[in-house]
Write a structure and sequence with these properties.
- This protein is α+β, with helices and mostly antiparallel strands.
- The chain contains 4 helices and 4 strands, in the order αββααββα.
- 57% of the residues lie in helices and 14% in strands.
- A hairpin with a 2-residue loop joins strand 1 (38-41) and strand 2 (44-51).
- It has a 4-stranded antiparallel beta sheet.
- It has helices spanning 5-31, 64-88, 94-117, 138-154; strands spanning 38-41, 44-51, 120-128, 131-132.
């Protein structure tokens, strides 16, 4: 499996996502008190939380040991599949490659947390009145943006990038 320069830039994007994600989680852990919101805007707080489950705290009440192994294993398999996909992707599929790079970086950022701590560090807390969206992090954002891009592409919006 070898990467040409075009593919390498997408792997670098994944690395940038990981660095920003882990750096922001480090800052949140070092600066915030657990579960004590810090209001930034009327609809946005920084709130340090630990997510022992999957997305949106799914499985958060399950046994931690098997869950860390299962969720980390799934993320690692997905990361390998994405890397292989990137190596086989034609050079002109930049939007797809960008989406995959975002998903890859986000998945690996959260795997790092899960394997090191046994949970994922979340701290972005959006709310409206008393309704709070589940807290999330930069990795989750990258995964969601990448997934949205893939969905848009799969729905036939193939011509949203400039023609060459």
């Amino acid at each position: 499996m070898s990467l040409h320069n075009n593919q390498l830039r997408w792997v670098l994007l994944s690395i940038v996502v990981i660095i920003i994600d882990l750096g922001s989680k480090y800052f949140a852990s070092a600066s915030l008190n657990y579960a004590k919101p810090v209001e930034i805007l009327p609809f946005f707080n920084l709130t340090l939380l630990h997510n022992y489950g999957a997305a949106f705290s799914f499985l958060s009440n399950a046994d931690t040991t098997w869950q860390v192994v299962l969720l980390s294993g799934i993320a690692i398999v997905v990361a390998v599949v994405i890397l292989i996909w990137l190596t086989k992707l034609p050079k002109n599929k930049n939007l797809t490659a960008c989406a995959l790079a975002l998903i890859l970086g986000g998945a690996l950022g959260n795997v790092y947390d899960r394997m090191l701590h046994g949970y994922v560090i979340d701290f972005l807390d959006f709310h409206l009145n008393n309704y709070h969206w589940p807290a999330f992090n930069i990795a989750d954002s990258a995964i969601c943006i990448g997934a949205i891009i893939l969905i848009v592409i799969s729905m036939g919006a193939k011509n949203i990038s400039p023609k060459k």
